């Protein structure tokens, strides 16, 4: 059997994800090669993502390598993967989700400031909107780069705190103080490592069947269908988090916000999961009927 060529971005976090996928394969006596590829999202660190045409910015170079058969699989942080995949590319496995939350990291000089008084660095429309819902007077600035770069900028630049996914901090083994933020709902699929392959590559798809975590797959499909139904190709402040318990029940929390956080529509449901029901679409339709359609139109007009 040939070595499985695992394509990845070159950031330390992306390489951690690729090595984790490789470890899962190696535990099943499957040999691997990791193939780092520079992505467009890593080449331009000066502009916020929403000004770059965010869809696929971190994935398209890996998609190209995949379709050109330079790699067998591409490993991604699933929240970076567009809900509409390129022709002949599909998600073939997801690892078990570990840390879906957003957390706040402050600089030492801001340790005693109240949350409402912090100057926040984030380029995420979702994080800005959800934070503004709770603290409407907040001043924001843009920040780009990998985890280490953003931590360095936190020390060096003129802002008080920034937001990370807890998964990034934990996976990199960073010893930084952080605070949980109950008012934040995660980005759809946050904290999930995904493996993509060519849809017609049956041999590779078969190798990953045992690696796929079914409860995580069910939850992220709901989250991604929710996102896809609401967005319709437009970037918007949307949070979605589904969690499955041992009784086959799903707890789903979702939110759509205006860019400034003044108008937010939330949903919080518990239901029994059944195959072949598009729960994400149904939940998104509830949001749309509750003012979400008009809100999405406002967002599209202002971006």
Structural notes for this entry:
The structure is a single chain. The protein has nine helices and 13 strands. With 303 residues, it is α/β, with parallel strands linked by helices. The protein has three domains: 4-95 and 192-212, Periplasmic binding protein-like II (D-Maltodextrin-Binding Protein, domain 2), CATH 3.40.190; 102-180, D-Maltodextrin-Binding Protein, domain 2 (3-Layer(aba) Sandwich), CATH 3.40.190; 227-302, Porphobilinogen deaminase, C-terminal domain (Double Stranded RNA Binding Domain, 2-Layer Sandwich), CATH 3.30.160. The strands form three sheets. The chain has a five-stranded mixed sheet, sandwiched between helices. Strands 7-6-8-5-9 form a five-stranded mixed sheet. Helix 4 (125-134) links the parallel strand 6 (120-121) and strand 7 (140-141). The protein is globular and about 60 Å long.
